[in-house]
Amino acid sequence: MTEEKPQIAFIGLGLMGAGFTKRLIELGYEVTGHDVDPAKMTAVSEWGVKPAGSAAEAVQEADIVQICVLETSSVRDIVIGKGGIVETGRAGAVVVDHGTTLLDATREMSEELERCCGMPWVDAPVSGGPSAAEDGSLAIMAGGSADAIVKVNNLMEGLSGVFTHMGDVGAGQITKMVNQVLVLTNYCVIAEAVKLGEAGGVDVSKIPEALATGHAGSNLLNALVPRIVERNFQPMGRAKQILKDFDMLHDLSKGLEAPSPMADQARTLFRLLCARGHQDLDGTAVFKLYDEPPV
Fold first, then answer.
1. Is the sign of the CA dihedral 117, 122, 123, 128 positive or negative?
2. DSSP secondary-structure letter at 215?
3. What gap in Å lies between CA 290 and CA 279, rounded to an integer?
4. Cα–Cα distance list, 72 to 103, 107, 187 (Å)
5. What's the confidence (pLDDT) of residue 237?
6. Which band of pLDDT confidence, cut at 50, 70 and 90, is reported for residue 294?
7. CB-count exposure of residue 30 (10 Å: 0-12, 13-18, 19+)
């Protein structure tokens, strides 16, 4: 006999949320969705997501509540604000936060939710982007109790290529910051490398293939170089979001007394990129700082 799938509430239906919910419907889950933008709810209804007028309405029958929004303040509103999860959440259901959320706020909201309605918290930020959310190949790094992880394990494995329990609540967010050091600084490194190759007359479109079996070969090289070569900066993840993550990383590193000079330099480049009006372009648009004369 097939085990009945849990009911899902998904809150935050932007680029990542759309990819997530497509995957969930494909896997046979019933999904109720909410977003502050009605147009986004209309969009996801095309593949079977049921719209809800508030977070509280969305979670009434949910076994697992997934949140995917950009700002920590938005997560807080969804969880403990007016019309939030605490109004209708029930003991035994689990909240899963897929966003990149401040560590202290993550732990505070987890404690508040447990106290108010007995719902455990899993912080499960992701790496891979909207296309990976849609095809189930994300890397998901999670923090939470062992019991909570058991409740969401099957779901997370269906949404990811790799799902790893890193420790207690907050461990997922710390791991995401490790990921951001590695990924976001490399946006700048790869942009610099492409500019060097172009300046020297090399066909840089061949760089990922040429370096594939050496130490420089990587998933990120394969993903970013073609977009930079084509000057295709349509957002898969916006520059302003990357700058927000860099700011979070800076504060976390300072608090933990873990030096981050390379990440701080990349942070400066993204701050300049956004100051030049490119905040809504993809992170690969950092190449514009190498491709355009200074203003």
1. negative
2. T
3. 16
4. 10, 12, 24
5. 82
6. low
7. middle
Mean pLDDT (whole number) for 121-141: 95
pLDDT in tens, 134-148: 999 999 999 999 999
DSSP 115: H
Q: State yes or no: pLDDT of 295 exceeds 70.
A: no
Three-state DSSP class for 125?
A: coil
Exposure string (b/e) for 255-281, b if CB count within 10 Å is 16 or more?
eeeeebeebeebbebbeebbeeebbeb
Instruction: Calculate ∠ Cα 150-154-158, nearest 5°.
Output: 145
Q: How far apart are CA 281 and CA 267, in angstroms?
A: 16
Mean pLDDT, the chain, whole residue set: 95
Q: Exactly one of 22, 40, 151, 176 is catalytic; name it.
A: 176
State pLDDT tens for residues 196-237. Answer: 999 999 999 999 999 999 999 999 999 999 999 999 999 988
Residue 163 has what pLDDT?
98
- Determine how many CB atoms are found less than 10 A away from the CB of residue 160: 23
- Residue 262 pLDDT greater than 70, yes or no: yes
C-alpha distances out from residue 65 to 131, 180, 217, Å = 21, 25, 37
The CB density around residue 179, as the number of other CB atoms within 10 Å, is 17
Give every CB contact of residue 172 below 8 A, 6+ residues apart in sequence: 122, 123, 124, 125, 141, 142, 143, 144, 166
Which amino acid type is present at position 100?
T
The conformational region for residue 231 under phi > 0 = left, psi -120 to 50 = alpha, else beta, is left
Three-state DSSP at 88 gives coil
Q: Is 195 a catalytic residue?
A: no
Note the pTM of the prediction, 2 decimals.
0.90
Which two tokens mark 277? Answer: 């009006």
